[in-house]
Design goal:
Largest sheet: none
Helix content: over 70%
Shape: elongated
Number of helices: 6
Strand content: under 5%
Radius of gyration: 18 Å
Amino acid sequence: MPYSMYVLYGDITIEVLILSFLQVERAAEGCAAAMAGVLPPDLVIRVLNPIIKTGDFPVNQAAVKMLTRTAEHPENGDIVRQALPDIMPGLLKVRGKPGLEEINGD
């Protein structure tokens, strides 16, 4: 395909690519939310806590969202409360990182 064809359809190609990324992100978020409701909360916390503490954006953002979904389940309340001393330092660290305005509500 000649280069001019890529230039001619470049804007459409970029738009389709971006929309595809958004659809994959939404599907991944739905999957993470479902997993957060099914997997044992102590397992979810144990796996996500190091990712939240050391991961880069957007990986740590996805981990915080999944942890939030885990904490939202009423039956997980006691386990999440017990894990707060381990969870909070990572959440506070993430709060200060750039790019997490969506999580921070800024």
